[in-house]
């Protein structure tokens, strides 16, 4: 069935449609224009913006902020391609963000378990917690045929309540204490994880039998059933992968500053929902998701820098830029090619 | 045997109670009750496990037979939760079943009813959108915007009118209308985006929540902040333009008239959804959008209308919150919009069902305050229960399965007691 990897096929996979190509061209030209404007008028707002966009500190905080968005977005692709719309990514990010900090503090910074340092233990614990919550979601959706959107909302709301609850139980407040700079992971780690996960997801989706099964489970479950592959198993795998990847994202987010903030909408602040828009914007392509996630995270990083520059615009208003941008993007993209059978239950026919 | 008169009475009776004993409605009811019991059971497990991990000097509760000590007493938590929300009508640990000095007009019950009143509006807001097949997660934002419009319009108008009860009524009506309009417009945005650009309303409403909170915060911080106020808040609206507590203690922030208005809204909305042509359009496009379009319903316009109405109800919720609970717009706004989702889902998105669902959730919220006063258990427990209830209501098939195993077959109705027993295992799984 599989053709040898010829370079043209590879490129087709990368830029499978005009849509992705126009996305790439658009992004490159916006950056080019901004750079040009910044060079020509260094004293204007454009100059400031260009300096911000092309500065190292913006780049590093983009890498840090992109991790939860891109990783949860990649996870969302796996779940939705398999036919289960996972709107609970936000909840998975919240639970892994909290558990990673909690586990790291239980082990104690500086100590290690079986040679594994506390930060790494926290990271793994975060991933485990997120995967476990996604397993509950999978059982509820696949076994008990729950409405996927409502169950996804429930996952979010459970995590939104549980993380501050646990934080109050263990630390006496909705915010955990900061573990200190020894407990943090650098932006380089976040960036590496994002790139590895993107490449791995792309390979898994486009180059393996599992990827084919995954797409079939979402597009035409009956056909998959006919060739003797269990639709349920494939869907479980898809949802668990979304939990696994979101877990990496949530842990990376919390451990990049060494603290979990549980006040209000928690430190995740809608990044799980932005992740959904990122993979819709990227048209279910991991590379597109990476681009879209980097764009949203870049906006977020930019607003942080803009605040520091002291424009007369209130900080809180600048903070809304990424949210407005998400709405604009979603309006422009609209409904993408959602898998045919996504959101529907599949009954095995005996 | 069959006396025509008796026949008529039964048919009238049947029609009257029909919607409530209809099998699907009955099933929904049982599922809602079972979901609540199951989430309480899981919550029990969560309190136990966190009580095991938390540190305390003396155990609050010791498990029978095993002798393992726990920092939190889960039985006490629920006793305080439900008994406290009603103002302790039941005597616990003292002789007699009831507290002799209890009256329904106590502070705790007033707080519970105050929450109930607010949840009626946000619950209706979510329910209307749901009936049209739309998930309005943005009730929170619509409430923020509506509440701000109410406070600002009253503050602007009050100096123009002579102080007094008449002006009070005018101001309350105008303010509430302003809240409805502002909330409606804010709700119309995701409606229009959904109808004309196919932008998923779940995402846009959640994003608009963030935008609403931030924009309203900045507006009040920079322009409308009360002088000398340590928090970000507007001036208080004049006392005669507030919904003041009546019968209940003043600090309960509960105005009976607001609850009655809420009940009136329930009736009006029920009539609108079930007995008007617009309501019919709304329902059919919710159930089967393509068929509705084929039948001549303008689906796009219905989507915008449903979201506008939903937003307007959220805005009225904001108005009531400002006029009854706070007396001003305050930046720290409770999660009323999210709780509205639970209320609506628990009510099966039926306006009539919103009343008991809002009361139940009002009890949980009122009881949470008591948990905070009387136990060491964090009050966020109620937020966990909120999520669990939604999760369990979303999986009716689970309860049907249990019903089948329990040999109830027929109606596919589970006995509420049954899921309780499986909850132990389920709870352990969720906590691990």
From TrEMBL, chain B:
<feature type="transmembrane region" description="Helical">
    <location>
        <begin position="167"/>
        <end position="189"/>
    </location>
</feature>
<keyword id="KW-1133">Transmembrane helix</keyword>
<dbReference type="GO" id="GO:0005886">
    <property type="term" value="C:plasma membrane"/>
</dbReference>
<feature type="transmembrane region" description="Helical">
    <location>
        <begin position="29"/>
        <end position="49"/>
    </location>
</feature>
<feature type="transmembrane region" description="Helical">
    <location>
        <begin position="201"/>
        <end position="220"/>
    </location>
</feature>
<feature type="transmembrane region" description="Helical">
    <location>
        <begin position="70"/>
        <end position="91"/>
    </location>
</feature>
<feature type="transmembrane region" description="Helical">
    <location>
        <begin position="306"/>
        <end position="324"/>
    </location>
</feature>
<feature type="transmembrane region" description="Helical">
    <location>
        <begin position="111"/>
        <end position="130"/>
    </location>
</feature>
<keyword id="KW-0812">Transmembrane</keyword>
<keyword id="KW-0472">Membrane</keyword>
<keyword id="KW-1003">Cell membrane</keyword>
<feature type="transmembrane region" description="Helical">
    <location>
        <begin position="254"/>
        <end position="273"/>
    </location>
</feature>
<protein>
    <submittedName>
        <fullName>Inner-membrane translocator</fullName>
    </submittedName>
</protein>
<feature type="transmembrane region" description="Helical">
    <location>
        <begin position="142"/>
        <end position="161"/>
    </location>
</feature>
<dbReference type="Pfam" id="PF02653">
    <property type="entry name" value="BPD_transp_2"/>
</dbReference>
<feature type="transmembrane region" description="Helical">
    <location>
        <begin position="377"/>
        <end position="395"/>
    </location>
</feature>
<dbReference type="InterPro" id="IPR001851">
    <property type="entry name" value="ABC_transp_permease"/>
</dbReference>
<dbReference type="GO" id="GO:0022857">
    <property type="term" value="F:transmembrane transporter activity"/>
</dbReference>
């Amino acid at each position: 069935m599989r053709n040898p990897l010829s370079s043209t096929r590879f490129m087709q996979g990368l830029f499978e449609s005009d849509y992705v190509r126009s996305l790439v061209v658009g992004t490159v030209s916006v950056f080019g224009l901004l750079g040009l404007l910044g060079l020509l008028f260094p004293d204007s707002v454009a100059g400031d913006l260009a300096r911000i966009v092309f500065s190292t500190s913006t780049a590093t905080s983009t890498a840090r902020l992109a991790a939860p968005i891109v990783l949860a977005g990649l996870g969302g692709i796996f779940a939705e391609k398999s036919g289960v719309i996972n709107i609970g990514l936000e909840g998975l990010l919240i639970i892994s963000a909290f558990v990673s900090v909690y586990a790291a503090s239980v082990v104690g910074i500086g100590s290690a378990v079986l040679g594994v340092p506390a930060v790494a233990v926290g990271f793994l614990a975060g991933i485990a917690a997120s995967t476990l919550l996604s397993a509950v979601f999978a059982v509820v959706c696949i076994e008990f045929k729950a409405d996927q959107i409502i169950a996804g909302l429930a996952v979010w709301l459970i995590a939104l309540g549980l993380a501050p609850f646990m934080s109050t139980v263990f630390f006496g407040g909705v915010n955990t204490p900061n573990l200190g700079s020894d407990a943090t992971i650098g932006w380089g780690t976040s960036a590496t994880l994002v790139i590895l996960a993107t490449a791995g997801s792309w390979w898994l989706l486009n180059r393996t039998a599992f990827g084919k099964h995954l797409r079939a489970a979402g597009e035409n479950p009956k056909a998959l059933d006919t060739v003797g592959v269990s639709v349920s198993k494939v869907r479980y795998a898809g949802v668990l992968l979304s939990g696994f990847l979101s877990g990496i994202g949530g842990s990376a987010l919390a451990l990049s500053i060494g603290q979990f903030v549980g006040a209000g909408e928690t430190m995740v602040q809608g990044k799980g929902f932005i992740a959904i828009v990122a993979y819709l914007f990227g048209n279910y392509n991991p590379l597109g998701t990476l681009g879209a996630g980097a764009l949203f995270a870049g906006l977020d990083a930019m607003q942080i820098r803009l605040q520091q520059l002291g424009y007369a615009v209130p900080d809180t208003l600048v903070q809304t830029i990424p949210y407005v941008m998400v709405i604009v993007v979603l309006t422009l993209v609209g409904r993408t090619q959602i898998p045919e059978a996504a959101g529907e239950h599949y009954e095995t026919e005996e | 045997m069959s006396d025509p008169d008796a026949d008529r009475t039964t048919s009238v009776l049947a029609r009257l109670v029909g919607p409530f004993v209809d099998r699907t409605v009955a099933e929904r009811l049982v599922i809602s009750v079972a979901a609540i019991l199951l989430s309480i059971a899981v919550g029990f497990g969560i309190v136990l496990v966190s009580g095991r991990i938390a540190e305390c000097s003396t155990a609050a509760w010791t498990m029978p037979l095993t002798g393992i000590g726990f920092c939190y007493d889960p039985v006490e938590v629920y006793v305080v939760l439900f008994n406290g929300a009603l103002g302790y009508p039941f005597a616990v640990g003292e002789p007699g079943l009831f507290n002799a000095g209890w009256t329904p007009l106590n502070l705790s019950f007033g707080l519970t009813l105050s929450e109930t009143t607010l949840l009626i509006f946000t619950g209706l807001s979510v329910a209307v959108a749901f009936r049209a097949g739309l998930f309005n997660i943005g009730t929170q934002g619509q409430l923020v915007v509506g509440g701000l419009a109410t406070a600002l319009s009253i503050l602007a108008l009050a100096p123009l009118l002579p102080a007094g009860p008449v002006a009070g009524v005018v101001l309350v009506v105008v303010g509430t209308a302003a809240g409805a309009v502002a909330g409606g417009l804010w709700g119309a945005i995701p409606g229009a985006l959904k109808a004309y650009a196919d932008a998923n309303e779940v995402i846009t409403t959640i994003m608009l929540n963030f935008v609403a909170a931030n924009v309203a915060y900045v507006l009040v911080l920079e322009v409308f902040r009360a002088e000398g106020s340590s928090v970000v808040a507007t001036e208080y609206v004049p006392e005669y333009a507030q919904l003041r507590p009546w019968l209940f203690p003043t600090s309960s922030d509960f105005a009976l008239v607001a609850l009655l208005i809420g009940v009136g809204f329930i009736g009006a909305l029920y009539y609108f959804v079930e007995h008007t042509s617009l309501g019919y359009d709304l329902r059919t496009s919710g159930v089967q959008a393509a068929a509705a379009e084929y039948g001549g319903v303008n689906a796009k316009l219905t989507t915008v209308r449903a979201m506008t109405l939903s937003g307007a109800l959220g805005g009225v919720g904001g108005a009531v919150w400002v006029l009854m609970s706070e007396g001003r717009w305050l930046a720290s706004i409770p999660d009323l919009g999210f709780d509205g989702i639970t209320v609506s889902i628990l009510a099966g998105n039926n306006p009539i069902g919103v009343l008991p669902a809002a009361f139940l959730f009002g009890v949980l919220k009122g009881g949470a305050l008591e948990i905070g006063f009387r136990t060491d258990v964090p009050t966020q427990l109620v937020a966990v229960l909120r999520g669990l209830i939604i999760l369990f209501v979303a999986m009716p098939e689970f309860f049907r399965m249990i019903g089948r195993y329990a040999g109830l077959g027929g109606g596919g109705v589970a006995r509420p007691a049954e899921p309780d027993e499986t909850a132990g295992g389920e709870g352990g799984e969720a906590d691990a």
